[in-house]
Amino acid sequence: MPVTEPPLNGLSATEGATTVVADDQHHERPRSTIAEWTITVLLLLFLTTTLVQAYVIPTGSMEDTLLIGDHLLVDKLAFAPPGPVSRYLLPYTDVKRGDIIVFRYPVEINQTFVKRCIGVPGDRIRVINKQVYLNGVRLDEPYTYHKSDYIDSYRDNFPGEPNVSVDRRASDMLLNHVVNGDVVVPPNSYFAMGDNRDSSLDSRYWGFVPRENIIGKPLVIYWSYDAPTEDLNTSSISLDHLRDLATNFFIKTRWRRSFMLIHGYQIK
């Protein structure tokens, strides 16, 4: 957003010495004002790009935990690599099973995805008839959502022979990281799935999430608006979306979700 400099209330000059003083004040005031605004803008940019950042959910892959139109603030500090001093001062944590993570989509790095971390390095993962098994133990996953009872041969019984086109990273995972029927998560990688298991483009289709791709974790839903995917899945705001906001802001805002904190679920 452009910053507009406030008008300067320079003092009018009179004769003699007063003219010099007034002229000095006239020139000092703009420099001081510009410096203050510059520092303010830099601080805001630092805070919003380094510590937290706003994102919007454009698809239903994390329903019903996160809905289409949820606007999130993401903590970019939580999973940041700790420094020699900052590790003792700041709340860095490792990515854990059950954490909701925001990351750069490995297939198209300019896209941002939100999924749940199911497996960390060394974990063994298998899906049998929609049920996830982690290290041989069936998971209790109260956050999952299934839209149908239909059992897909690949999606719901994984790993297996893909019945759809998958990314080369998924092909490599199936070829080189399957042991005794389980996918084994390699070092510095994570296995992520959407809570809406029947409609989620996740690690089953494009492989592991590299550690360096992880941006952070969502903290809070600061606003939720019932809008279709096509209005949210672009970098610009369409005229139709603006008209919709102007007409239906109070009706289609999900007020109950405003300022809702987002928590992971501990998977043991």
Provide an overview of this structure.
The protein is an alpha+beta fold and 268 residues long. The chain has two domains: 17-50; 57-261, Ribbon (Umud Fragment, subunit A). The protein is built from five helices and 13 strands. A hairpin with a 2-residue loop joins β8 (178-179) and β9 (182-184).
Strand and helix order:
HEEEEEEEHEEEHEEHHE
Estimate the strand proportion.
15-25%
Structural class of the helices, strands and pairings? alpha+beta
What's the mean pLDDT score? Answer: 82
How many distinct beta strands?
13
Here the CATH topology of the largest domain equals Umud Fragment, subunit A
Q: What sort of overall outline do the alpha carbons produce when their principal axes are compared?
A: globular
Tally of helical runs: 5
CATH class of the largest domain: Mainly Beta
Number of domains: 2
Helicity range of the residues?
10-25%
Which descriptors apply to this entry?
single chain, 268 residues, Umud Fragment, subunit A, five-stranded antiparallel beta sheet, 5 helices, 13 strands, disordered N terminus
Task: Summarize it.
This protein has 268 residues and is of the alpha+beta class.
List the helices and strands and how they pair.
Blueprint: H1 17-51, E1 52-56, E2 70-75, E3 100-104, E4 112-119, E5 124-128, E6 131-134, E7 137-138, H2 168-176, E8 178-179, E9 182-184, E10 189-193, H3 203-206, E11 209-210, E12 214-224, H4 229-232, H5 239-252, E13 260-261
Antiparallel strand pairs: 1-2, 2-12, 3-4, 3-12, 4-10, 5-6, 5-9, 6-7, 8-9, 10-11, 12-13
